[in-house]
Amino acid sequence: MTKIIAPKGTKDLFKPEILKWQFLEARIRQFFSRFLFQEIRTPIFEHSELFQKGIGSETEVVQKEMYTFRDKANRSITLRPENTPSVVRAIMENNLLTEIFPVRFFYIGPMFRYDKPQKGRFRQFHQFGVEIFGEASAEVDAELIFSAFGFLNEVNIEDIEIYINSVGCPQCRPRFLPELQAAAQKQQNELCPDCQRKISTNPLRIFDCKKQQCIDISNQFPKITDYLCQDCHDHFQVVQRTLSTFEVPFISNPRLVRGLDYYTRTVFEITSGQLGAQDALLGGGRYDHLFQELGGKDIPATGFAAGIERIILHLDEIPETKTSIIFIAYQNAALKTEAIKLSAYLRKKGLPVFMDYNARNIKKQFKKSDRVGAAFTFILGEDEIANQSISVKNMKTTEQIQIKREDLDQWLRKHM
Ligand SMILES: [Zn+2]
Ligand SMILES: [Zn+2]
């Protein structure tokens, strides 16, 4: 029989790497509560329409990367490629805008994209992200970037760069697009086939192209920041000013447009020098019209998503927190029941306990005790049962003492 292996682009997590995941997840919960974010969990699959509408049908994600399939009732279902459209849907569906204040959520969980697997990039990958709803001011965008920057600092990721831009709004972006299209048209033949197609469908996406020839050409294209309306211009100024107040270093990059269609005004990305040209650790921006696009009221919103696998690549080894383990050894099979009773007693007290139900002799049990890293081995033999006691061996010092059963609790309080 051929062995069944994990699908391409997925991975199993266990010690020691999982310690980094546990560390990171705990820090996320802790850190973002300072900004009054609460956790939200949405389904891993949704109706495909949510992502087609929410992300934009011309985007790379929707066109090439979604895991979409028919369920048994012939509904089109998609494994979420990102979480923002789901969070917006959940908020509308559950009326959270009126019931929770402030409407600030964080999430942690797996996302799915049919992408080419490479270092730090998987088909089942994990993101954490935050979303803020109903807060339109530019200071909130700056606060969001401050929180992202602060978090990466908190988990000791250094050497990071923050890029920001404004992609305008439905008033000013349409003024920019024809100018961009005209410039792209002039150099159409030098652009890659993908970018040639984007000229008419979605010219902003040309800035996403990773091919050097396209980057060189699009560097000469008009800049969106030169076409912002007064409101968008002012908004962007306040974002930058407030970032300085927060003492967040940033680089204004007019090429930054992000791969999703729903952004308005502020967009940002944080990359790490350590990863080189690898994709961003984290990115996000304002998306003031996504609610409307998905059939709701016009609610301002802003947020970001971070790649957990990419952040994990930067984390130092996390030392395992050692708890003192008790191993229970018994001299012969007749004493197994007594040993099980003792294990139950200790576990009810909240102590980590291990024993071997198939133990053949005491020597083998000491070996097992060593392998699980026990601090103490409790030994039950005929003698111990007869005089109602337990022999306790300190595995480090190899010192062995006998304690009365009635003194066990006192001993535990002192040593465990
Ligand atoms: Zn505008
Ligand atoms: Zn291109």
Largest sheet: 8 strands, mixed
Structural class: alpha+beta
Strand content: 15-25%
Radius of gyration: 29 Å
Number of helices: 16
Mean pLDDT score, rounded? Answer: 93
Low-confidence stretches: none
CATH superfamily heading of the largest domain: Bira Bifunctional Protein, Domain 2
The share of residues in helices is: 25-40%
Total beta-strand segments: 16
Intertermini distance: 48 Å
CATH topology of the largest domain: BirA Bifunctional Protein, domain 2
Description:
This protein has 416 residues and is an alpha+beta fold. The chain has 2 domains: 17-172 and 228-314, BirA Bifunctional Protein, domain 2 (2-Layer Sandwich); 326-415, 3-Layer(aba) Sandwich (Rossmann fold), CATH 3.40.50. It has helices spanning 17-32, 48-55, 60-65, 84-93, 96-99, 138-154, 173-186, 193-201, 212-218, 230-245, 290-293, 308-314, 336-348, 362-371, 382-386, 408-415; strands at residues 38-39, 45-47, 67-70, 76-79, 103-112, 124-133, 160-166, 251-252, 266-272, 282-286, 301-307, 326-330, 353-355, 376-380, 389-394, 400-404. It has an 8-stranded mixed beta sheet with strand order 1-5-6-11-10-9-7-8. Helix 2 crosses helix 4. It is elongated and about 95 Å long. The protein starts with 16 loop residues before the first helix and ends with a helix. 34% of the residues are buried. Bound molecules: zinc ion (2 copies).
